[in-house]
Amino acid sequence: MKNPSSPRLVIIDDHELAREGLRLALVQRGFEVVAVGATAAEAIELTQTTDPDVVLLDIRLRDGPDGLAAAAGIKALNQSVAVVMLSLHDDADYVRAALKAGAKGYILKDTALDELCAELKTVLSGGVAIPQALLAAVLTPKAAAPPEYHLVERLTDREREVLRLISEGKTNKAIARELVISPATVKAHVERCLAKLGAADRTQAAVMMVRWMEAEG
């Protein structure tokens, strides 16, 4: 049975020092960290097996699907758990991508611990945690096309379709099932998308796609 006075957390970060440091700090501040992990697959599995109140999830995970995919997977299986993204990116478009994936919060990694705890309590009480400096930009519709708009325009229809599904947090296997193509073909499309966009990884490419879709209206 859950202890209502001690919120249950799962922490997912692919940097061991970061997740262990955060675990210790949150335990000292009255939170119960029921599990930690490093991948999207672990995030989904641990959410199912430990029934946390909140999953603190790094938006960028190095091995396999990213935090956006993990968030979408978690919410597909358990609507009651709150997902809070941890990120280095002080960027409204990343916040929009996180919210689209189902996150209830977006917290920058340089946030002070006391402020982090306050934001977690906001989420636990049913609110949404977004950095104040980014809130206005997140809520304001973007009038102009983003700088990378023309890069997304250069993708083929199939590549944009794959990228749209990535922006929805879907894994290569899920995309393959939906488009009735092989995972190897999806992987090839993803690699071409990253190359054409000059994106470092799936997360950055997904954010670029979200910007493009917003500009398209």
UniProtKB/TrEMBL annotation:
UniProt protein name: Putative two-component response regulator protein
Modification 4-aspartylphosphate, positions: 58
Entry-linked CDD domains: LuxR_C_like, REC_NarL-like
Alphabetical keyword list: DNA-binding, Phosphoprotein
Molecular function (Gene Ontology), one example: DNA binding
Biological process according to GO: phosphorelay signal transduction system; regulation of DNA-templated transcription
All copies of domain HTH luxR-type, residue ranges: 148-213
Residue ranges of domain Response regulatory in the record: 8-124
